UniProtKB/TrEMBL annotation:
<keyword id="KW-0735">Signal-anchor</keyword>
<comment type="function">
    <text>Catalyzes the first committed step in the biosynthesis of complex N-glycans. It controls conversion of high mannose to complex N-glycans; the final hydrolytic step in the N-glycan maturation pathway.</text>
</comment>
<dbReference type="GO" id="GO:0006013">
    <property type="term" value="P:mannose metabolic process"/>
</dbReference>
<dbReference type="GO" id="GO:0006491">
    <property type="term" value="P:N-glycan processing"/>
</dbReference>
<dbReference type="Pfam" id="PF09261">
    <property type="entry name" value="Alpha-mann_mid"/>
</dbReference>
<dbReference type="InterPro" id="IPR011013">
    <property type="entry name" value="Gal_mutarotase_sf_dom"/>
</dbReference>
<dbReference type="InterPro" id="IPR037094">
    <property type="entry name" value="Glyco_hydro_38_cen_sf"/>
</dbReference>
<keyword id="KW-0378">Hydrolase</keyword>
<comment type="similarity">
    <text>Belongs to the glycosyl hydrolase 38 family.</text>
</comment>
<dbReference type="InterPro" id="IPR011330">
    <property type="entry name" value="Glyco_hydro/deAcase_b/a-brl"/>
</dbReference>
<dbReference type="Pfam" id="PF07748">
    <property type="entry name" value="Glyco_hydro_38C"/>
</dbReference>
<dbReference type="InterPro" id="IPR027291">
    <property type="entry name" value="Glyco_hydro_38_N_sf"/>
</dbReference>
<keyword id="KW-0326">Glycosidase</keyword>
<dbReference type="InterPro" id="IPR000602">
    <property type="entry name" value="Glyco_hydro_38_N"/>
</dbReference>
<keyword id="KW-1133">Transmembrane helix</keyword>
<dbReference type="GO" id="GO:0046872">
    <property type="term" value="F:metal ion binding"/>
</dbReference>
<protein>
    <recommendedName>
        <fullName>Alpha-mannosidase</fullName>
        <ecNumber>3.2.1.-</ecNumber>
    </recommendedName>
</protein>
Amino acid sequence: MKKYVALWGALFFCVVFVSLYLMMETVSTSQRRFPDIDTNSLDAFEQKINEIQKDVIKNHDTIKKIKEAVRKLSSGDKESLEKLKELLNIEEKDTKWKPVTKEKLVRVELDKDRKQLVAMKIKDVEVSKEMCSWSDAPMARSDVQMMDLFDMLPFDNPDGGAWKQGWNVTYDHNEWKNKQLKVFVVAHSHNDPGWVKTFMDYYKQQTRNIFNSMLIKLKEDSRRKFIYAEMSFFHLWWNELSADKRQEVKKLIESGQLEIVTGGWVMNDEANTHYFAMLDQMIEGHQWLNGTLGVKPTAGWAIDPFGHSPTMAYLLRRMGLNNMLIQRVHYSVKKHLAKEKQLEFMWRQQWDSEATTDILCHMMPFYSYDIPHTCGPDPKICCQFDFRRLPGSRYNCPWTVPPVRISPENVAERAFMLLDQYRKKAQLYRSNVLFAPLGDDFRYDTMEEWDVQFNNYQQLFDYMNSHPELGVHAQFGTLSDYFTAIYKEYNVKAGQKPGQYPVLTGDFFTYSDRDDHYWSGYYTSRPFYKSLDRVLEYHLRAAEMIFSVAVVTTRQEKLENFPMKNLFEVLINARRNLGLFQHHDGITGTAKDFVVADYGNRLFESLNDLKQVIKESATFLSMMKRGHYTFSKENPVFNVDETRPSQDSLPEKTVLSVTDSSRPVMFYNSLGHRRQHVVRIYTNTAHVEVRDPENNLVPSQVDPFWKNHVTISDTIFKISFIVEVPALGFSIYTIKKDPSSNARNIPASVTIFNAAESQAYTSSIFSIKKMQPRNFALENAQLKAEFSELTGLLQTVTTKFDDVKHDAQIGFFSYGSKMSKERSGAYLFLPDGEAKPIPISAPLIRIIQGPVLSEVHVMVDMVEHVTRLYNSSGSEGSSVEVYNIVDIKSKSNLEVAIRISTNVRNPDGVFYTDLNGFQIQKRKTYSKLPLQANFYPMPTMAFLEDDHYRFSVLTAQSLGIASQKQGTIEVMMDRTLSQDDGRGLGQGVQDNKRTPNKFRFLFEKRKTPIPEKSRHTAFPSLLGHLSSLHLIHPLFVMPYHTQEVFPLYHTFSALRTDLPCDIHFLNLRTMQNKDDDITIRTVPKDTSALILHRLGVDCNFFSRGLTCQTADGKVALSSIFKEIEVMSATAMSLSLLYEEEVIETTADLNLQPMEIVTYKVQLL
C-alpha cells in the first residue's frame, strides 16, 4: 500500500509541475515591448487568461481522477489499478506519434536593400523507413495487367459479322445435356440526372412515372424483379410517397423484387472526378438509403461512365460491396478478354500486394447496354426481344426486323431463337450463370412497357423451364441474384474468388466504342465548370471540417446562438449539388447548354452557401465570448474576400477599405498541418502596414492592379505577404493604412516589353520601365526561371539546390477538327492532325518583381498567361506557378493546349497520370494508336521521369493530357466544337466562357535511379503530394466586415498537433438524422465521420519546405483534437454502412499506405 501512496504522491507532483509549466508557457509573451496597450493587446491578454483557465481545469480534472483511482485502489478495488494505468497511458499516448510543433517557422525578413526576402533555411523532411520499404517493394501480382495488354494488342478492327467488333461465336449443342444454363434477365432503367433535359425535368416528365409504374407492376407478379441505381431521383420520389406506399416499397426491397444497386447519389464519372467527391456522393447516397430504408447495397452498377477507374473499384470494396459491373471499355479490349473468358475478374489495386482490395467485376461484352446489345452477339436478333419496339410503337429496330408478340403458336420458335443468343453469350464467360440485362435509358416509364416486357418474357421463361431437354432455367433476377449464383456454383463465400477467375490490375482509359472514335474530348469539355466543380469541392470539405468543430464547441459550451440547423441545411444541399454534378454527363461537360447552366446555378448557389457556413463557423470559433455571437446574414463579422456575380463568371476580389484603424483579416486553413503561404488581398491604398497575430510587423509587397492591359488603377492595389496558419485553424492578421513610408511595405517594380510607343505608363507608387525586349529571369530562394525575350514565355528553370538548369519551354498549340462524316464533339476528340503552334509575335509582356513574389504577364491570342514565383519557404516556393485565362468564344472547331518541353529523358514514351487524385497510373504513348487515343484524364497531376529527375505538372482542375514526344507534357485547356459527334447529345460545344486554369511545375532530383522499371504504378513524392493539396485547397481569406468590435482569438487550431505529413485529413463530416423526418433532418447528430487517407509516397526524392513530419502511419484518435474529446470511435466501412470494430481512442492506429479509413466518432 505504501508504494501506491508513494506513486500517488509522485503523480500529484508531476501533474502540479506540468500545470505550472503550462501556465508559465501560456502567459509568456513576445520579447517585443509595446509603447501602449491597445484593444488587440487586451484581447490577447484575455485570450491567454482563458487558456490558463482551461489548462487549470484540465489538470484539476486529471488530479481528481488520479486521486479517486488511488483512493479506490487503497480500499482493494483492483479495477482502479487498470484505471490508473489508463490515465498514465493517455498522457503517454499524447506524445507517442505527434511531431514537435512548438517551433515557429523561420521568420521572414527583408534583406538590407529591401529588395528580397532573406533566404530561409529549408529543411528536408525524412519519410519513414516503413513507407520507403513499402513503396519500393514489389507491387500487386495479376493475371491480366492492362498496360501489358495494351502493349500486346494490335488494335485492329476486322468485321466480325453479326457481332461486328467480335467474331462468329459458336457452341457445342451437347454442352448442356448434363447441366443447366442459369439465365437471369435483369430489368433496369438508366436515368441520367441531367443530359438533354435538366435533372428536375427528367424527374417530372419520366423518372417519377417509372417509379409509380414500378410500384404497381412489381406487385402484380412476385416473379418480376427490377434494379435501380441513382438516389438523387429516388429520394425525390420517396419524399412524395404516403406512409402506406413507403411500406410497399420496403416490402418490395425485403422480398428481393426491387434491388438498389451501387446506391450513390449518382452514377459518377470516373475520369474527371476527384476521389473526395466520388466518396462524398457515395456517402450521401448510402446514408440516405440506409437511414430511410435500412438498405445496404452489395453490388456496383456502372453501365454508362465513359471508361472505368480502379479507384471506383477500391471505394466500392472498402464500402463493403463485393461485386460490380462495368460496360464502356475499348472494343478491342473487350474482344480479347472475351476470347480468353476473362470478362469476369477480380479487380485488384496495382499497389495491393496483399490482395485485400479484390472485388469481383463483370464486364458487359458488347457495344452498348441497350437490349439489342445485351442478350447475345447478334443485335438484329436481340432487338426482336425488346418488346417496347413492337409495331405501332414510336421505337423501332434499326435492323428492320421488328419484335413479335409471344403467343402459344410462336413461343417455341421464339424461345429457341433467344436461347441461341444466350448460349452464344455464355461462351464468353467461365461460369454456367448468364447475365442478360433488359433495359435502356429511361425505360419502363409507361404501364404498357412493363406489361409487354414482363408478360412476353414470362411466356418465354415458362416454355424454356418446362422443357428440361433445353438445359436452361431462365427467370427475372437482380444483379445480386446473378453474383450469388456464381458464388454458389463455385462454392465460395461472397467476395471470394470463384474458381480460376483471373486477377486484373489497371484501368480502362481511353475508351473507344468504334473505329478511331476515342472519347478523350470529354476530359476537357466545358473546363469552366470542371474548375467550378473543384472550387465547390474544396469549399465543401473546408465547410464540413470547421462546421463540425463549431457544432461540438456549441454543445460543449451549452450555447444556442450558433445557427447549426440553418447552416446544416445548406450544407446538406451543397453535398447533394456537388454529388449531382459528379454524374457522368455533368462534370464531363456532355450535357445540353441549358442543362449545363442548370448545373452551374446549383454549384453557384451552394458555393455562396458554403462561404456562409465557413465564415459563420470561423467567426463563432474566433470569439473569446462565444455567447455574444449573433448570426447576421446581412452584416457578418467576417466576410469572404471574393464573390461571383453569376454562375458563369470569374470570381471578383473584394477591395478592402483600409483606414488608420487596424482591420483584422482571418486566414483559414482546412488541412491537417500548418502552412506558410503567400496571400494576396486587394486594398484601396498602397500605403499599408500588416501585422501578424503576435503584433509583429510583416513584410509586404504592393503590386499594381491593371484595369485593362495597359492602364494601372490608382484606387485599387494588390498587397502580398506571407502568413502562417495552424492546422485546421485560422490566424488573424491586421492591416491598416500607414501614411508614413513603411520600410517593410515594398512597391513592386514594373518592366514592360513591346508597349506601344504612344502608350505612357505613369504611377506615383510604382517604378515603371518601358524597355526593348531581352531575355530575363525571375528568382526566389529555391528557383531561377528564365524567359524568352521574343515571347515572354518560360524557357528554363534552375533548381538552386543542385544548381542544375532544366529545359521548361512553354508553348501554346491548337488542334482543328477532322473533316469527315463524324467530327469532334462533346465526347469525341477527332483532330485534323498534329497540333499547330499558336503564333506569338511581339506580345505585350509585363514583368512585376518584388520581395514576396514575382510574375510575368503575357497577352497572346486566346490566352492571358501569368508565370509566377513565390519567395516562400513553404511548398509553393519549390515550384513555378502558371495561371491562364483562356478565351476562345470567338473561335470555331478549335482546341487549345499548353505544352511544356523539358529535357527529361522519359524512356519508351512512358509518362504518368493520376486517377481521381487517388493513385498514379503509368501511361505510354503508342505509335500504333491515333493521336486522340494517347490522351488521358488528369484530375490532379501528371509527371515524366528519368533516372535523374522528375518533372511534375500539378493542376487545380481536371483536364486532358498527353505526352506526344519525349520530355513533353501537353495539357488541353479548352475546346469549341460546332457540331454534334453522334453520341446522343444533339449539339456541339459552343457555350465557352473565359476559363481559368492553374498549374504548378515541379522539378525534383531523384536520390536513386527509377526502381523496377516494369512497374505499372508510381507514387508522388511527399513534396508532390503536399504541393498538390496546397494547390487544390487554398487558404480562405475573410476580412473583418462589421463596425462592431468583439474580443477575438488571434489564432485557433482544432488540432492538438499537426497530423503526420503522409496522412491527409480527408473529412470531418457531421452525420445527418433521418432525411425523411422533417422534425430532425437538419439537427446535426452527435456523431461525425472522421475520414483519413494515408498517402503512398515515393521516398526517392527530397521533401523540402514542409512543416510536418511522418510517423509510420501512426495516429491516436484521442491525440488529434486540442479541446475536443473523442468520446467513442468505431471503425466503419468507407460510407459508414457497416461497423467493423470499436476503437480504443487512446491506442495508436496503424494506417497502411494508400488506405482510406472512416471512423464514426462521438465528439464532445
